[in-house]
Amino acid sequence: MDLLQLRYFQTVARYEHISRAAEELRVAQPSLSRTIARLEAELGTPLFDRQGRRIRLNQYGAIFLRHVERALSELDDGRRALRDARDTGLGRVSVASETLLTITHLLGHFRAAHPRADVRLFQSTAEDMERRLRAGEVDFCVASQPLTGTNLESIELAREEVLLAVPRGHRLDGRESVTIREIADEPFVSTRPGHWQRALLDRLFAAEGLRPLLSCESDEPAVSQDMISAGLGIGLIPAMSRQTGTDALIPVAWVHLDAPGCQRVITLVWNRDTYLSEAALKFREFTTSMPFLTHRLPHPRGGATMIPRSGPDPA
Fold first, then answer.
1. Which of 264, 304, 294, 270 lies closest to 95 in space, CA to CA?
2. CA–CA distance, 92 with 141 (Å, rounded to integer)
3. Which domain holds residue 226?
4. Is residue 283 part of a domain?
5. What percent of the chain is modeled with pLDDT above 90?
6. What is the pTM of this model?
7. Closest to 164 (Cα-Cα) out of 228, 220, 219, 114
8. SS (H, E, C) 279-314
9. DSSP, res 55
10. Is the distance from CB of 213 to CB of 205 less than 8 angstroms?
């Protein structure tokens, strides 16, 4: 058993598809299949159930995968520790977020405070963030929906109200608040499943026994306000988006949604079993020691919509 076999097995287990795994690994499919077959022969048990060209990780493969991921994670941590000890800088910190708008200013302030840190940024869905954390591909995730995992730790950074944005001149323009049932027949602009906006929209409608009518689904949350302004539908927009100063350029009307839990909770998540460079430790300290939503946000009719972070302050 060698390291290459374990890397190949981990990738095949992730995709449960030989051709996709071969494409990522940049190896020929027959060569990859032979490598997996040799590993199974050495272990004395099949790791996948095969039905024609389709493969599925079986119970033995799932057991072995947990140990392989821990072993490979330890080796990757060792390589990073050596690199950090050799480098003159603070090392690297890798961060994933569902939307880059959420952390743009945060990373800018961090880079200004720690110019020797090597910062890497990834845009990922919640599912992909969990995988990246388990695989050690990122140090932190700034998540807007819960990430699950026995080795994951998190701290709440901020809460903010999520508003209903409607085109100017819409029948709801000028309303203080609306209920879910009042907008049940309205077309919605939203993201695809996997993004927090879609998860929140589906949850709010499900609580009323309804399903939202979707006029547009996208992979880029930042364009939702443009499409709403263009009259393609209404949508849920976090209050923080109004900080960008685009309200005058992309005019929409803002309405409160009278529904329990219509808010976004932003958390910083990391894998407690993964090595963190000095840069990563500095990033966690920096992020948890300052207000995440640094500007007070205007209420649709005056006041402020920012909900302060709850719970004890992090050490």
1. 270
2. 15
3. 159-263
4. yes
5. 50
6. 0.65
7. 228
8. HHHHHHHHHHCCCCCCCCCECECECECEECCCCCCC
9. E
10. no
